[in-house]
Amino acid sequence: MAAPAEEVSVSDGHHIELVDNHMSDAMRDPEPSPGLRDSKGWDGKARVDRTAVLSNPEALSDPEYSDDDNVVPGEELPADEDLLDDEPEDTEEIQCTHSRIQSIPALRLERFKQVARLCLRQNLIQDIEGLEGLSETLTELDLYDNLISHIRGLDALTNLTTLDLSFNKIKHIKHISHLTNLTDLYFVANKIKVIEGLEGLANLRQIELGSNRIRKIENLDSLQNLEELWLAKNKITDLTGLAGLPKLRLLSIQSNRIRSLAPLADVPQLEELYISHNALDTLEGIEKNTKLQIIDISNNAIRSIEPLKPLADLTEFWASYNQIGDFKEVEEVLAKKEKLETVYFEGNPLQLRQPALYRNKVRLALPQVQQIDATFVKVS
């Protein structure tokens, strides 16, 4: 029990009650402070129900998980129909980048009778439509970085030579085989698993399919004029499938799962090979590609460059971060290649063992070289 309060008398007859200086009951037996609350009883703290259950636990374990069917729609803003009102109707090029366009028909493009190049990059377009009025003149269509899931609405655009649908949500290559004038085709960073739907594109010069989900090189035989094939950042394990490409001169297949170069014998005309970040531990199989001028094998596990001996036209050899450690072999294989201008050996044992002497030793071994790694050197 708390001690009674003391009373102090004052001259006017009133008295003042003083609290005892000793410890109160509350201090002897403390209880939690009730805290501050608003008029509705809320104490300002956010609380989460501890019994909440994750409805899609597969999203935590599957790197390819995509729940496109349950995307919560954001605020929809109407397309700006007046966006192109200041554009002359005889213009040959229209660019509307990052303009929050959702509807192509709302742009009323049919009024432009001479437009050859249309760029609608970085918008909110989901459907390819409203382009029929440009069919006679349009040759280049750029819809990079939009929200397109299906390839439709291109039936009338038979004069297209360049089509860029990179950075969208496309899963299947369809409805473009009639675009027989195409020379350049871009599908970078979509969700494509299978190379398909390219039949009839005999004039195609290059195709970019990097950053997709492709596991196999296939269905390219109809592309008899293809010169450049870009397949970086996929899941490809085998180079088989290139035999039907008689004009292929550049192959970019970085960041895949390639273990063997043997299938490159099917494309002896190859001039540029970019195959860094794969699973190579040997260059065997590259001997028949005697026309190669540029090779990038960085970030593999290659120990010997002996297979490069027959490649007399080599001008650039990028081999950083491998297991190459024999200066004598480097000199024997590369010293007589008169066209060789650039070499990269950074991160290999031959550089890591003696970093201070490394560059001078390369210069002595390869006097014709003008660049070692990122450093330009004087030609002897």
Automatic annotation (TrEMBL):
Keywords: Leucine-rich repeat, Repeat. The keyword Disulfide bond does not apply. Residues 1-90 are annotated as: Disordered. Signal peptide: none annotated. Residues 12-50 have a biased composition (Basic and acidic residues). It comes from the Eukaryota. The keyword Lipid biosynthesis does not apply. Residues 77-90 have a biased composition (Acidic residues). InterPro entries: Leu-rich_rpt, Leu-rich_rpt_4, Leu-rich_rpt_typical-subtyp, LRR_dom_sf, SDS22/Internalin_LRR. This is Protein phosphatase 1 regulatory subunit 7. The lineage of its organism: Eukaryota, Fungi, Dikarya, Ascomycota, Pezizomycotina.
